[in-house]
User: Fold these one by one.
Assistant:
Number 1:
Amino acid sequence: MTHEDLPCQDLVELLTDFFEGALETETHAAVERHLVWCEWCATYTDQLRRTVEVTGTLRGSDVPAPMLDVLVDAFRRLRGG
Amino acid sequence: MEDGDLVTALRAGDEGAFRALVERYHPAMFRVASFYVPSRAVAEEVVQETWLAVVEGLDRFEGRSSLKTWLFRILANRARSRGVLERRAVPFSTVGADDDDPTVAPERFRGPGHLWAGHWSDPPRRWSDVPAERLQDAETRAAVVDAIRELPPHQREVITLRDVEGWTAEEVCSALDITSGNQRVLLHRARARVRSALEQRFSEGVQV
């Protein structure tokens, strides 16, 4: 399989499967080869990775504390421990 | 304490176990809720209601799914209903809700018959011009939040659980009752849209 067998337009649809290791061996290898020579697809792939990274930082954002007293009251009443 | 042991303790009325449960899952539940509803205040309400429903529903939890999945389902039901009620404030994308559409616009590639059919004609521009601090600053994160909020609900759920909350693929498939293939399709579409939103943001030139 040469790099011509995997046009950029098809590759961009395969990237999540690629990251997840869900592609067939040959297809996975074709994606890898394509990314070596195609700077644009390499850029797109990198951007997709960075998007995942930034999305992960949302986990660090400030979360308001739960109103524990209310919840524990309800728990006590209902569970009677 | 493992979730399974927590459930046993909870059913026995162990208050410490309940506090531990809330501490463990509250942050993730808040983040998930906040993608459905327009404000922190409403998200807080949704999560608070969810916890009360959890307390009430403990006896009905049969342990066939994981505790995490069960919590999420209760939360998702409430968040979705509330989100529908508040919908005016949150843009709801109907375009491409049932996508078979490609995730990158076909116009960005050479058409069939061209010597380089299928290759980029309007390629992505590198983000290396964007300073690293900007790539992860508060505004960029807000742009990601907005993009996620505008996703069709199933895509929104998958990207939130996988990429924001770090759940495994198996956990997401279990929580949403979808196949792994379906999960990957939804995740791919969601990520592509968020990337596209960031691309637009970074090609807008220097921000003040």
Note: Residues 180-202 of chain B form the longest helix (23 residues).
Number 2:
Amino acid sequence: MANPDRARKLLIRTALATSSTIATLFGAQNLALLDGTTFQQVEAVTTTTITADTTALTIEQAEPSLVIQKTAPNFVILRHATNGTNSANTQPPSQNQNVNTRNIQPPIPSQMAAPAPIIVQQAGQTVYVQQPAPQITESSK
Amino acid sequence: MRLSYIAFRAMGCLATLQLETETDGIERLNEAVRQVETIEACLSRFRPNSDLMQLNAQAGTWVEVSPLLFEVIRAAKHAALVTNGLYHPLLLNIMLGIGYDRTFEELKSSAVVASSTPMLDWHAIELKASRNAVRLPPNGGLDLGGIGKGWSADYLANQLSTDGACLVNLGGDIATRGAPQGYDGWPVIVNDPLDSSLIVSLKLSNLSIATSGVDYRRWKDLNGTPQHHLIDPRTGKPAQTDLQTVTVIHPSGVLAEAFAKAVLIQGSQAGLTWLAQQWDSAGMVVKTNGEVIATPNFTQYISKETSS
């Protein structure tokens, strides 16, 4: 034989190429089978016909006497009108029925339990104080 | 722990800061005063060179703005959304039309002519967060006065709270964080807008409170027509309402302000009903007939000193 080594190498390379080709073909075929299966499954779902139950449904009220009313929030009157025209008196009942008010004892406009701290300072000067100074919330002045 | 206090004028109103801290409270408050000036320089519509007015001058085009201005505009859009537009940030041209084209101090002593101005859609304010960019609708004018103090009070309170319990009061828009030692909250008072007598005393902690009213900022135009600064976006004119003032408590100063305006515009019945449906909100109203009504959850904040 002219070159036994060359022949052996050629045989080995041919076997490797062939086996890898066969493996590739085999793998591709398996993937195709899987895809086909999935497709068939999807196809099966989309082609399934669902029949709606057209039988009339009967709803039984457990509590036929239950009446749901829109409830209005219960507002609190902190002070009545100073001129006697309270909300309850000035509006017709039809407008009033959705607004419930309840009275609480009006707060006594007394002085603060703790005296306001004495703050002696020049404008814009930061100082130390003994107690927190009550702040007034009001529309901007 | 020491309690520091400062009073000064800013944003056209009286402002006070209180901070209880073990660190140097005086220096910290002085620094906060400088921050107020920075904020006002950015947000004021009465300063021609403010960031806000420079944005207004370029309405219709994309403008990259400072992170501070972008955040306030974002908060304003959110407030408009949750109030269904009853708080409306694009009222600048309306305000100018009714004569509110200068600070209220200057307005009181001058004569103005009111004119009608068309309303714009606040949804048309566009934001790009990645670039801090804003585009206003053409001819749109942004006025952040409706929520600016509430936002600023919250911002400053958040800054100061890293040093201790604090209270920030900007013209009656108040933000509180924590409470002073020995107190279950910061003392806040609501007075009668007509005679300044005490209505109720509150204790607040980690909450904001704002009051809107038609009691103070009022004037007459040259035709003698009464004007005030709270515009009803549904009509484009000063709100017709049976309310003098509205006070709202909310964790957010922006929403406390916006909700107070929304309630005032709607009137006592519809406004209080609407407010009672909002999350985390409590409020009270003073009607023109002197009656004072509150939502049920408002009473939990009333100080024992004024409840019987």
Note: Chain B touches chain A through 75 residues (CB under 8 Å).
